[in-house]
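[Q] Does anyone have a clean structure-token version of this?
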Amino acid sequence: MTTSLGELAARTESAARLRETLLTLVQERGSLAAAADRLHVHKNTVKYRVARRGRPLEDDRLELEPALTAVHWLGEAVLPER
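[A] Here you go.
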């Protein structure tokens, strides 16, 4: 799973926020506005966070979505110790 997450597997507040943003965006079928509503932020904030990742979500969505879901439900216990 850590290979699917890459830098998102970090146990930092920033990585956790980005994981939450990406999972919400996937769940909202790519809608920035809908994801922003659920996260209670502006849609440009969602856009900025996704852009920080450095590549489009569609590039690895099939690998990323289950990994993000696992971390969401199981918590940081599934992330590697660093």
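[Q] Thanks! Anything notable?
[A] Residues 2-74 form one domain.
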